[in-house]
Write a structure and sequence with these properties.
Monomer. One of its GO terms (molecular function) is ATP binding. This is Shikimate kinase. This protein is α/β, with parallel strands linked by helices and 182 residues long. It has a 5-stranded parallel β-sheet with strand order 2-3-1-4-5. The protein is 55% helix and 12% strand. It has 9 helices and 5 strands. The protein has a single domain, classed as Rossmann fold, CATH 3.40.50.300. The structure holds shikimate-3-phosphate. Shikimate-3-phosphate binds next to loops.
Length: 182
């Protein structure tokens, strides 16, 4: 797998609570890649937490930072990047994501809701009805997540290690298809 990827970055996309960070941290050492989290980089650049950025500067300012960080990190290779759930919203971001392999961790909304219960770090979930909010975000975003190169459907019993194995299996399928076409 490593030799086929040739240092090409992996970008994990998907809703908040889909496990991108945990899975990216498992995948990186397996591929001898470096793990990065776009949200943590945004916080470093801004010198503020994500809730602070949303509260003080608004979502649009956060999205600008997100694009800036992505544009800079895509210049590097050998990265597994856990992205923020909304990274797929900006068309310009796709021009960066498409340099690598884009993997969608597809988790049912009920599972997301369970995982995110009590979370205070996601400003978009500060809503009187977080379940309805999650559903509406997923409705708006599903067609964009579907543009990923690879989709991994996550079941309620799947461990992060199993999901990481599933990601590698799906990537190896598309790499094989690609090799067979050429
Ligand atoms: C967001 C997801 C968050 C973070 C921000 C906005 C979104 O990242 O980028 O709160 O729009 O879905 P995670 O997906 O890592 O929670």
């Amino acid at each position: 797998m490593k030799q086929f990827l040739k240092g090409c970055n992996l970008y994990l996309i998907g809703m908040m609570g889909s496990g991108k960070t945990t899975v990216a941290q498992i995948l990186a050492p397996q591929l001898e890649y470096r793990y990065l989290d776009s949200d943590r980089l945004i916080e470093q650049v801004a010198g503020q937490s994500i809730p602070e950025i949303f509260a003080e500067s608004g979502e649009a300012a956060f999205r600008e930072l997100e694009t800036k960080v992505l544009s800079e990190l895509c210049a590097y290779t050998h990265l597994v990047v856990a992205t923020g759930g909304g990274i797929i919203l900006n068309r310009q971001n796709w021009s960066y994501l498409q340099h690598g392999v884009v993997v969608w961790l597809d988790v049912p909304v009920e599972q997301l809701y369970q995982r995110l219960a009590g979370d205070t770090t996601r400003p978009l979930l500060r809503d009187p009805d977080p379940m309805a909010k999650l559903r509406s975000l997923l409705d708006q975003r599903q067609s964009l997540y579907k543009q990923a190169d690879v989709r991994v459907i996550v079941g309620p019993e799947d461990t992060p290690e199993q999901i990481a194995t599933g990601v590698l299996a799906e990537i190896s399928k598309i790499l094989k298809d690609h090799t067979n076409q050429n």
